[in-house]
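Entry 14. Ran structure prediction on the chain below.
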Amino acid sequence: MKKINHKILLVGMYPPPYGGITVHIERLKRILDKSRNYKCYVLDFSGVESNEKNKNRNIILVKGNKIVRLIKALVRIKRFKGDIIHFHVSAFGNFKYVGILLVHSNNQAKKILTIHSGSFIQNYKKGSWIQKKMVIWSLKSFDYIISVNKLQANFIRENLKIKSRIVVIPAFLPPVYPENIILKDEISSFKKKFQKVIVTSGFMLRYYGFHIIIEAFNEIANSHLFRAGLIIVYYTKEDLSYKNEILNMVKGKANIKMYSSLDPASFATILRECSIFVRATDRDGDAVALREAAFFNKQVIASDCVERPKGVLLFKTMDKNDLKEKMKIALSDPNCGKVESSEKYGEKLIQLYNIIVSEKKKGA
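Output, structure tokens:
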């Protein structure tokens, strides 16, 4: 049977660097490359070269300063002869200024937008009148908007009065990486000292709540009731003042390890080896790392700032004492905080693409 290669252009960033959106795009490209019906291209705004990017002609790296990258992106998008252009943004920061230009540079393909960050609503509310208008104008330009959680979808639909078709599809796509054997051995040695190992991850920013995790953990460790270790994995976006605060908090602590900017295979290795994952943010999109921990059947504790997957052990957002109590529960009961298996969100994206291609054929 002859393959039908509908063309899709993913616009965002491809790793490296590593982060929620870049890893999502990398995994989505792999799913599309394995499908029968789609040929996938990536327009990569990262400006960071790699061997894979240099070898793969379907990953188009745009380099230069912001203006040069914008011009190059406009040309690439305008020239794209395909069915779907799928934009991926974080909290709509700079995209509100250039989104309309990028979207309208191609009038042939259907346009989709995925908003990944939980900061979108907060950032919108903080914006000036003209910034808010620019966000709304940009959103109205898309045929479909994908939100990673219901809170964000309801805000766009009800508060911003956007009539584009809005669907909720969490950003998690399963990891398919081999284990990092050297790191596995290192974590195994760390594990031997403790009954359980807790892990958390995110950007080195205050709203990720590393400070309350450390405070709660220290109080539990000091009680001598639990022998536990803590691993903090942080990524490139950072507040130096907050980073110094965290480094001072963990200084001299043999039961706390820190890792910076791990690649996805290394982070997955840590998740496989740990017992409990903690997400302590005061806002959130979908928390891909949380779903990844659930994928590996780990206990999950998370703040109640947004709706979480069924089974997550919730604590009051930024409440250290409540977090401490939930840590005690999870450490005492290995079945508590186990999350129901995730839906196959990659299949949902393919189904959406199929609908859009069908609509395009019909001229909808």
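The radius of gyration is 21 Å. Will compare against last week's run tomorrow.
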